[in-house]
Amino acid sequence: MQNIEDIQKPVKHELQKFSEYFASALKNEQPEIQEVINYILKTQGKQMRPLFLLLTAGLHGEINHKSYVAATLIELMHTASLVHDDIVDEAYQRRNKWSVNALWRSKKAVLIGDYILARGIRTAVDNELYDIIREISFVIEDMSKGELIQADASLSLDISRNEYFEIIRCKTASLLSACSYSGAKSTGASPEEVNRMRQFGNLLGLAFQIKDDLLDYNQTNLIGKPVLNDIKERKMTLPLIEALENVTEQEKEKIKGYLREANQNKISANKVYEFVLQHNGISKATALMEQKEREALQLLEGYPDSPYKEALIKYANYIMDRKK
Fold this sequence. Notes:
mainly alpha, single chain, two-stranded antiparallel ribbon
């Protein structure tokens, strides 16, 4: 397992500067708003997206003010989307901490999410990063589209492999793609390099989401039983889609019947889980994940060896090897 501190080494100083810039972008004179902002800053995660952006910037040139602004815009947009997601999902915890929705309730949480997004856009406009604002607008559009497609799929329980990849491209890969695009763009990389980095982030984002879907089949509770959150939420993720690939229509309908009951019936959830294991859904999904990671890393082969390139390879390995 890769160590996150090793990945951060080439941009350790720059990450600190980013954190300061990010906090200043959120500063507000209203105590009621700043109280929520301070809580969000205190509960920030590992800042994997700013890290990815800064490493990509370093791969192409000198990390500069535009790099920090781009990283701030993306992290603000991502933070706003998490606040809104917790409202939609009625989630009261995030990373084992109380969510904004839990502590300040949905009305204030919606407004805080809007405020954070607006601050990100304003920061980018003030610094004239119009190409990156345009890229982020596509991401917001894609994320909304992906959620809507997935919501429809959870009702019909009918989704192909291609449709699944379009959902995860929209929901997950588009944001990582925007990070690598923005990192390269901020240093004045060539159009060819910028497009290569957009594809690099997209492929890595697809692999990242497949890994997330696989983790649902590997995570266990305190007594060693599978958690199966995706199954209970009737999500058609890649392990299940692959397992359904070569079975009869009758068997498909039988499994879909179990899936419809999974949230209320542990036996039905376990039936779906056992079906996926028996029909090699996990191994097939793992092979596709590894293929996407290989394709992503191939895009780095033309770059000379550097601490940034080495850290990006470690970054890819880190998100593939993670246990949660």
